[in-house]
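Example 4.3 (complexes with small molecules)
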Amino acid sequence: EQLPQVAIGGPKITAPNVPAVFVPVNRPPGVQEARMKLPVLAEEQAIMEAINENDVVVLAGETGSGKTTQLPQFLYEAGYARDGKMIGITEPRRVAAISMSRRVGFEMGLSSENVSYLIRYEGNVTEKTQIKFMTDGVLLKEIQSDFILSRYAVIILDEAHERSVYTDILLGLLSRIVPLRRRRGNRLKLIVMSATLRLEDFVQNEKLFRIPPPVINVESRQFPVTVHFNKYTREDYLKEAYLKACKIHTRLPPGGILIFVTGQQEVRALVRNLRKAFPYRRMEIGSEKEESNSVKLEESESEDDFPHKKNPKVKRSDEIHLPIIDLDEYPVVSSGDVDEDELVLSDDNRDMEEEIDDPKATRAPMWVLPLYSLLPGHKQAKVFEPPPPGSRLCVVATNVAETSLTIPSVRYVVDCGKEKRRRYDKTTGVSAFMVTWTSKASANQRAGRAGRTGPGHCYRLYSSAMFNDQFEEYSIPEMQRKPVDDLVLQMKAMGIHRVINFPFPSPPGQEQLQASERRLILLGALQRREGSSEDDWAARITSLGQSMATFPVAPRFAKMLALSHQQDLLAYTICMVAALAVPEVLIDTAGNKETAAFRRMWAGTGNSLLLGDPMVLMRAVGAAEHAGTTGGLASFCEKHALRLKAVVEVRKLRLQLTAEINSAIPDLDLVVDPQMPPPSDEQARLLRQLLLAGLGDQVARRVDPETIKDEEDKMKWKHAYRCGELEEPVRIHSTSVLRREYPEWVIYQEVYEVEGQRLFMRGVTAIEPEWLPSLAPALCHLSLPLPEYTPTYDSSTDSIQCHITGTYGRAAWNLPIVQI
Ligand code: ADP
Ligand code: MG
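Answer. The structure with adenosine-5'-diphosphate bound is encoded below.
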């Protein structure tokens, strides 16, 4: 009998500790037989003993070995879901939470009342829930209201190797919650499940676990997979994938094909083309009507386009027209360039051509199925069913199929080598997706999918040189890519003051954490403790910071939202933040009078005009929204030089922000109003102040040419501004509606350089300098602190003034008298 491998230093598993209870489960017919084939089943006893004897256990095993579907069942049968306690399982991906809760419910013959899921805004959890699948973000929220997770007897952190930010934070928090529960005599078990990747980050990590937890490795049978590299790396990997799949299908023996591409649009395009090439028709019924397999997929905007990368003038077509090729024109790529990796056991390294042993199979239909995270549940489930007789299964997937979902009987993997990764925008904290090379570890995981049921082949659509030189070993944990400002604010809101000491599995840089803390102090979200020094990194969250933490955007925008809530301006601010977060909504049409006139009209007069570019954006988006309700969005955008994709993106973001804010603030019931009337003059003034509150560190002042002696310098500084620490003159960009207004004090969203010479401000709003002391206090130095002023009444302006002076920032700009 095979014994589980136990990590060196981990406690030894000794006497069998058979659970005292056994909760019977009534499985539907056939399920038990299928379970028995899974590698984890063979280890059930060892796994359960380890869990009974240790509070923390790490379970590592190849994808498809049965971890996710079986562990909850073991625990249930061993009595961990009794007395109103639950077994909780977290997943980084929503699709996995939903699909796995369904599967486990089915295998156990239990309904969704008992085996449930909860993801953001959606779920089927009931009072009777015993096994609860959820996204990691959901559990993190629960910890904020119930720190010791009193409703759970076990928490399973699944897919820990994916290293999502939330799973990483959960790991740190649970490493403290588990001992706390033990001291209270109310044990909580923690099981960390992972593919066999880089376990040392959480096992040999003294900050997390003083004694390394035992590691159980589930050995699973992995058949040899031969890896074939392409000789050349071609740009158009979709076409390459198509050609490769055609070749495999027409020339190689039976066995499923799994193709990895990067996103929903690509999946759908490839599925469509492969279906066209090898149509599946239901011949038995004698009908010419094609099976559902060939149904055209409905159009929808995908979550993960990144519009600013594309040329707005090019009409995007979802359909990628690939030629239906004559296969004989394409010689088989030699498989000579084989990787030395352990993955390759080259005893099965025959050339493709030798394997054409069944000429009849060459024109067989292909059963092509898509798989991506937003695919509806019932379509997702199709990949688990065997293909119709006489056809070959071909699944086109995103990296959902890499470790979260295992498709049976795959023999050939085609890997484009790329993936879509979340990239965080530094200014807005809003994330976008971009396509990059994946890591070596991921590529090997993908290859491994071909060896689940027998020897297989993996065709990489890139060269071995590319693999060796361009692929990083492992994907960098998300924690180290995300802007830390959001992270620090979230953690402080959870009551974790010393973020620097938090046991992160892979901590962000110390300097980054400190810089974030400094910025959050400037924004007023954090406050140094009384009498503490500059390098005390344990600032406390303020009440402003607390409300900021409820908004899912970068702290400066969160501050605007929090303050606007007090002023009943939330709907406008959401629209403004959404519009500012998407790049290039307004297309630059230098010299186009008509467009300029429209923009000028949107800008309005008085405070609206002074609100500047954000005002134009808000009106443009509002007007486009209005046009959209009558179906004329595209032509409206064309006419007004708005980037259609950006407008659609803003709309989505607006809906998303509105929904998230509604869920964060009870009884708010905010709706996105397509008819939103433009703000009144007074509201526009408040909006200017709100923008200053968030962008208080991005203030610029116009330089008065009279103060400059040198004639050359005079020209250089004509209409120019001085921005913070910048030496060079900065100008308002020509696309700004304020470019001819030359307001003396402005805030800007961004400074950027045009062709290596001139600096320009984008997203400009005029402000009144007397707002600075109250709205950007951390950057102002006043002659007297504000509470100590002596106000005087000025009858000519009917205002109260206080005669103090001050400076803003290190540039020592004089501030005028503060008006109250
Ligand atoms: P792991 O978590 O170790 O990667 P899983 O528990 O997800 O493994 O998968 C175990 C097995 O269950 C796999 O062979 C997979 O194909 C199968 N499986 C998972 N979901 C379904 C489903 N909805 N229908 C049929 N089989 C499934
Ligand atoms: Mg799994």
